[in-house]
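worker-03 picked up job from queue 'complexes'. Input manifest follows; two sequence lines, order preserved.
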Amino acid sequence: GQSLEQPSEVTAVEGAIVQINCTYQTSGFYGLSWYQQHDGGAPTFLSYNALDGLEETGRFSSFLSRSDSYGYLLLQELQMKDSASYFCAVRFTSGGYQKVTFGTGTKLQVIP
Amino acid sequence: DTGVSQNPRHKITKRGQNVTFRCDPISEHNRLYWYRQTLGQGPEFLTYFQNEAQLEKSRLLSDRFSAERPKGSFSTLEIQRTEQGDSAMYLCASSFGQGVDNEQYFGPGTRLTVT
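worker-03 finished. Artifact:
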């Protein structure tokens, strides 16, 4: 089966940098995605890593180490609107089909 | 394009009743996914379609659940003989891809409450 672990809650100060870690166990691994979800809203895609290294998109960066089965999401210059839940999701193949499993999410609270 | 839409947004039903939800994906997207999400949890995969073919169905999906995507456009998710444990947010997502796709666009969800 698949399993993902990420911290349940993180608190950070406005303007600071925060890193949300995700470790996973799965066979047939393809890549790791990150999604943001505000309370009452739908998940929205942030980033995807299929290869080792860092992907940067504005204030958000995502990192993957396939050998360590580990990734993280880095949020810089935190803003109050970044308060949300962040989910890592592994994409893998099983039985010839692509599948995806989401983690349980990290609730980020940005404080003034 | 207005994105992925889902109807209804909220549904309250009594235990034992049948319910049906609809998802309209982004028009050019060939893949459509259904997820279930409960409070404090991530989306749980239920099933997905590539065009009109249902390619995968989670073991979470009991035989009370059925999904269709006629003509490869909109999709419906039906739950028969609802139980209180079915209360959740049901999310639909769509994407475009022939191989490995990485970005899914989610709809606003249908919140189901079974009383």
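worker-03 released lock.
Residues 52 and 70 of chain B are 6 Å apart (CA to CA).
The mean pLDDT of chain B is 91.
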